[in-house]
Amino acid sequence: MKSTLLTTVLATLTATNALTLNITNSTTGQKILNKALTAAGTPYAWGGGSCEGSTHDQPPYQYGDTGYDCSGLVCWAVCQVTGRDLFSEGLRVTSDMYCAEEKELKYKKYPYEQRRAGDAVFFGGDCDCASRKSIHHVGLMMDSGDRMWNAPNDDVNKVQENSIAKFGEKPCPYIVRFA
């Protein structure tokens, strides 16, 4: 039986805002989450993010910040780890990512109950792809529980960890697994 060496990174959120995470596997999703964790504390910027990194916010919400919005953070981390440019493929917007057919998305969708670290979790009222504007937020699961890593437009306005309950609405029925 061949044994596999698993790298363990032990991390803690400290007073200096250094974030680390206990990692016990190296799935593609975990690698994407690890990359996204390096953006800790980056400002929220509406429309912000590219394959190269954070960008200035876009109209109509221009505060002068350079950073990420929720989908920009996820797409940047995916691009950095896999080389796949979701920005240029038309999958940069949260609703486009959630509503894409698996053939176009090239990633699998699973029921929310099967979530694990690095999966993209979505929010949006009834999560109806017929009215895409309702799907408005995406984050990366920290584990199979209720914590996610995201770029929320909230009172903190920085890339951070949050509980799913914080959003006051149920997550959409499906997650996207970057595998």
Automatic annotation (TrEMBL):
Ordered alphabetically, the record's keywords are: Hydrolase, Protease, Signal, Thiol protease
Keyword Hydrolase present in the record's keywords: the answer is yes
Indicate the secretion signal residues.
1-18
InterPro entries in the record, alphabetically? Answer: NLP_P60_dom, Papain-like_cys_pep_sf, PG_Endopeptidase_C40
Fetch the Pfam families from UniProt.
Answer: NLPC_P60
NlpC/P60 domain location: 26-179
Official protein name in the record: NlpC/P60 domain-containing protein
